[in-house]
Specification:
Blueprint (H helix, E strand, L loop, with lengths): L1 H33 L1 H5 L1 H14 L7 H9 L1 H28 L4 H19 L10 H12 L8 H11 L5 H11 L4 H60 L1
Helix pairs in contact: 1-9, 1-10, 3-4, 3-10, 4-10, 5-8, 5-9, 5-10, 6-9, 6-10, 7-8, 9-10
């Protein structure tokens, strides 16, 4: 209980000190989940939903089973675990680097400004940034994850989420940069965990309505999401300016 109380106190302290950053990354995840993530990760989601439903005997099939199968909770929990760990690592390392420089503020300001520019690149037409590591890391992770797609339930679904959370993604890179800007492992972990939570609604919607139906609302989402990403970029730049001061 002492460890739990200490962890809870650390989380509260991180939220109090970095609430704006955490809210900003949740907003970024929500915007990205409605557009970019739904398009890029939609096939992973639909593949898992199909495999889960095919494995369910006909006599046990019900509306509740379909809903549970489309939610993919273990998968999303696995992704959230990876993102949270990356955020905590980035925040902790940046904090250590800032201490070595005897000043966390310039480093934090630079990282937040970088995150702002990365999100802005995704928001503005013609400035979309594709990670150069796509062709290196993506196929290798896909190969490791392929056996888990056969029956992505329970621990296998969670493991699939853990692996696919490492897929190269410019939005995630922006989130990692922003989490690093917190200069704190707890705040960085919570910030990128909030980003992961923001991506869930869009991906769950893809699982529920399918790729064809999802494509209809994605045209609307693609118009709205850039506005949210621009707003998020502005918030991060304001945080960067405040950190510099």
């Amino acid at each position: 209980m002492d460890i739990f109380s200490l962890a809870l106190a650390q989380c509260r302290s991180a939220i109090d000190g970095q609430g704006g950053l955490i809210a900003s990354l949740f907003l970024a995840g929500l915007a990205g989940g409605l557009s970019h993530c739904a398009a890029m990760c939609g096939p992973f989601v639909l593949s898992q939903v199909g495999a889960r439903l095919e494995a369910c005997p006909a006599e046990r099939m019900s509306e509740a089973t379909r809903i549970w199968g489309a939610a993919l909770l273990p998968y999303h929990l696995g992704r959230a675990t990876t993102y949270t760990a990356l955020g905590a690592l980035a925040g902790g390392l940046a904090g250590q680097a800032g201490q070595a420089m005897n000043s966390v503020q310039p480093l934090a300001a630079g990282l937040l400004a970088l995150a702002s520019l990365l999100f802005l690149a995704y928001a503005l037409p013609g400035l979309g940034w594709k990670p150069a590591l796509d062709g290196v890391i993506g196929p290798r992770l896909a190969g490791w994850a392929k056996p888990l797609f056969a029956l992505p339930t329970g621990g296998r679904g969670y493991g699939l989420g853990l692996l696919l959370g490492f897929l190269p993604c410019g939005l995630v890179y922006g989130g990692v940069a922003a989490a690093a800007g917190s200069g704190d492992a707890w705040a960085g972990g919570l910030a990128l965990g909030a980003f992961a939570a923001g991506t869930v609604p869009g991906l769950v919607a893809v699982g529920f309505v399918g790729h064809v139906a999802a494509g209809r609302w994605q045209s609307f989402a693609r118009r709205v999401a850039p506005l949210l990403l621009v707003l998020n970029a502005i918030i991060l730049m304001i945080l960067a300016i405040k950190a510099w001061r």
